[in-house]
Structures are given as structure tokens and as C-alpha cells.
Amino acid sequence: MCGIVGYVGEKQAYDILIKGLKRLEYRGYDSSGIAISGDEKDLKFYKRKGKVAKLEEFIGDRSTKGTIGIGHTRWATHGPANDENAHPHASGDGNLVLIHNGIIENYASLKKELEKRGHKFLSDTDTEVLIHLIEEVKKQENVSLFEAVRLSLTEVVGAYAIVVMDKNNPDELVLAKKSSPLVIGIGDNDFYVGSDATPIIEYTKNVVYLEDEEIAIISKKNGLKIKKLNNQDISPTIQELQMKLDVLEKGGYPHFMLKEIFEQPKTILDCMRGRVNAQKGFVSLGGIEDYATKILNANRIIIIACGTSWHAGLVGEYLIEDLARINVEVEYASEFRYRNPIINENDIVLAISQSGETADTLAAIKLAKSKGATILGICNVVGSTISRETHAGAYTHAGPEIGVASTKAFTAQVTVLSLLALSLAQKKGTIEKSKLNRLLFELESIPEKVAEVLKSDDLCKEIAAIYKDVNNALYLGRGYSFPVALEGALKLKEISYIHAEGYPAAEMKHGPIALIDEEMPVFVVATKGPSYEKVVSNIQEVKARKGKVISIVTKGDEDVKKAADHVIEIPHTEEQFAPILATIPFQLLSYHMAVMRECNVDQPRNLAKSVTVE
Ligand code: F6R
Predict the structure, then answer these.
(1) Which residues line ligand 1 (CB under 6 A)?
(2) Which domain holds residue 328?
């Protein structure tokens, strides 16, 4: 979603802002803009529809001098993507400028009120209303910018991360947040601002994460001050970022997505580090250990998540029910919170989120918390809002995922869920020692097997070339492979814009079979396992209707090879871990099809990496 960057200090702000905006490009956006000021108090203010490169091109030789500034990448909510709706937005007198991530829900009534007082608006956005409100309050109450922002926000309903700048006071930025993330980087003699740490990491590792309903002022002269919206002083907690700069670069790969697909042997290993030792029969998730008894005695575990993380949650349901025999439900966060769910203190809610910022997941957590449930989290981004909102949790340790389409985060989430299921099963005694040992040894071998699956990249590319021009695709899987089919379809549609559906293989005959003809590629997971024969029959059914079958099979398989048009082999593994291996050829196929269709795989249209609006 929208990206925010800011700077106050002695350096020239322009390069820091542009570089920061480029680092935030992965979040997905449709326009960008910056505002810069300095001792001359002349506000430079540029914004443009399109990529940051378009903004740079537009700025060209125009002046960018100044040591204080803000920058923004917009993901349209109110009003189309155009120059007028791009941020920053200015007050009526042009002295104040603001950037915003989130949605001001009562903007229409505020706008009506301000229009009555003579305010004129140039854009369709809710953000412009907010800066006019701040201007009005500042004038009426004759207060500082900080106080005007604080008072204005008490009238606002909605979500926001904002940064405000006053051209007549080029010493300070005022920031505030509610339900959208905002990070302040503390440099030697300066401050950096970001909607996440990626634009900051290059300059400092010391950061302060603003909490909801906090408002901060960062000033060259007076440093950092934070208050609650109710005026209570807050002492900032400085945290050290663990992220390294090189992980934000492509490292020789043409796209972040491909880099992240190929990182999976390492990310899965990192995810298991210290958590499993097959030799010693040890499996544990340190962060959740204190809650183990509570989980084992819970009514049920409710997994809440969105998108790819929801697919990982489905695998989690299969794993936990199968191995630990605990009742699990998997819910879309957005549906869960609006359907008046029955939930109480005997329930465990397990939120899964790569970014740790997804607004729907966060809102579902808050609802479950208010009903007394214990909230656990599986997040990738360290220090993210969801990781801070949960009672306990486990990080996936996959490192920053920049490609909008989730790849390494999914396999890391499934790895954490495997560890959780095995550790619960061990504690509950629902797994025989010999089976536990077998599964632990197998889990330890998964990174190596993932590396072997990645060798199918050239084959995936060849298959992609054959099917790149199709309009539709069907993905089928059964048991543990059903979520893989859903994830395969999501990967293809989101980056190549080919319509794709994932189905449980046996459901095909209840409807989707009508779609099958010689034009329709059907991607089937047919690895060896309890439903193998049944899936082979499904493949026969597709072939009988002249559909094209591309199947993922266990190495050495002969039966599917005879029936399918193409097979991609993966090493043998226990059925519980097959989703980790089987998902990788689907990632590669989608990637190559999208590249061949000349799609922007790292930043697909309309999508955002961190979905901070509901
Ligand atoms: C798909 C994808 C999205 C996310 C979803 C949830 O490739 O990335 O479907 O999985 O937006 O995001 P997180 O996991 O950050 O909560």
C-alpha cells in the first residue's frame, strides 16, 4: 500500500527521499510525490502519476535544494491515480503539506464542514481533507503544528500514518499513526521516517516504532518527542534493526521474485534453525513454548490470515489436525471479523501474516482479543504491528520479501506450522516416537530437497513457453496438496493476469469439468500419497476431455508420466511436507509465464505488498 518516507537533518533531502521511494516500490503504487524545504523556506513540491522514475524525469533540473522533506508512493483508494490525487497534499494557503497512508472514513462529513468555511479542494482524496482540517484547527486555535495535528486527529475516524511539514518551520516534521505502520530512524544528527524500515536501513539501525494513537515531532534542534493523542508524554523505545541492506538488492537476479524463489533452501533452513534436532528428537518453537499447555487444552485453534498466508493456514489445519489431533478452523480474516464469530477465552487464534501489517488480519486479532482469546502469530517482518499485537508467536525468518507475489514467505510459514504441529503432537502424545523421528529427519532434509526441485527451473521455463498465451488454467490437488493448488492458481493469476482456479481434485466433476477442452491446461499435484490413485483417475478424466495436463509427480513415477502431457518431478517426501516441495514448480511456472507475457512480476498491477487498508 502507500509508502512513506521522510527526512530532517543536515544532508540534502532529495536523494534520500528518492532512494527511499524506490526502496518502497515493492509495496505497489500508482503515483508518487515529494515536498522539500530548507532554510530559504521555499517549498518545492512535485508529484506525478506512475513510477518514481516518472517523478524523477518530471523533476529533471528543477530545484530540489533543502534539508527537510517528505515523499510518498500512493496506492489509490479515494479517486483515480493521477497527478492531482498523488501525495503530498497541501493546505489552502500552501504552507502545510501532508502525506498519508490509510483511509479517513469520515472524510466526507469533514469535507462538507470545511467547504462551508471556504476551503477549496483540488483532489478527490480523503488526505487533502485532513491537511485542510489541520490548517483550519491551527488557525482557529492559534496553536503549533504539533498541537493542530493532535487536535485534528481527535476528530478523525479511520486509519492513518501521516507526516506533516510546515514550510515556515523547516526544522521539524510531525508524525502520527493509527492502524498503519510508521517507523522513525534515529541517525547521528538527523531523523529518517518510513512506512517500514526499508528506506531507513541504509542510514541507521536504531529505530522507534510509533504505536497507535501516538503523535511524534522530530526536530533538528529538539530531537524526538512522542505523546499520546490524549496529550500524555511517552518515552520512546529504541530498537535495533536486524535487517541487512544487501537483502534489499536483487543480487544478480532479474527480479526479486526469482531471487526469493531461489533463496528457499536457505530460508527454510533459517526458519528451522535451533527449532529442530532430529538426532535428539527435539522440536520446539521457543516463542510459543510458554503457551503450549494452553494450546493443548484449547477448544480449538482458529487460524486467521489472507491470501497466500491463508493457504499456508490451510496446510496448517491439515498438519495440526493430522498430527496433534486438535480441532482447527481456518478463516479469512476479513470474513471472520464481520460475521459475529463465536469465540471465547478457551480459543487460540493463530494469525499468519508475512508483512505483519495486513489490516484485515489485524482487525480480526483485535476482535478475538476483545473476546478473551489467546492470540499467537506467525509473522515474517520482525517488529511488525501484528507481531506486537499477539501474546506470543514465531517468526518465519525468511528475510525481507520484496516481490509482491509471496514465495519464500509461504514455504517458511508452512515450515513453522510443521514445527508447531510436530511439537504439539509430541507433547500431547498423539504421535508414535518412531513416526516423530522419521518426520523430524525428513523435515531436516527439506532444504536440500528444495534445492533439488529448483533444478527443474529450465523445464518449467520450457513448459511456460508452451502455455504462456492461454486465457484460463485449472489447478488441482487433494489432501495436503489442495492448498498447493489454490496457491498455484493465485500465483499465476496475480502476476501473469491469466485467469486461474484452484480446486480439490475430486471437486472437478462437480462443475469445473465443464470448462475442460483442448485449450485448457490443468496443473495437477499427483505426488505419491494416500490419494495418489484417485488423482491419477482425475488426470484420466481431464485427458478424456482433451485437456492438457501438467503434473507434479514424485521422482520415478511412471503412471502419471504415461497419461500427462508434461511432468515435473520432485523428490520423495512424507505427505505432510509435500506442499513445501510441490509449490515450488508452480512458483517457477508462474514466474516464467509472467515474464514471457512481459508482465511486471515484482509489482503486478493493482496489488500491494502490505495491505494496510480493510
Ligand atoms: C499473494 C500475496 C497476498 C498476501 C496477502 C496477505 O502472493 O502475497 O495474497 O499473502 O495479502 O499478506 P500478509 O501475509 O502480509 O498478511
Answers:
(1) 306-309, 353-355, 358, 361, 405-406, 490, 494, 611
(2) 248-431
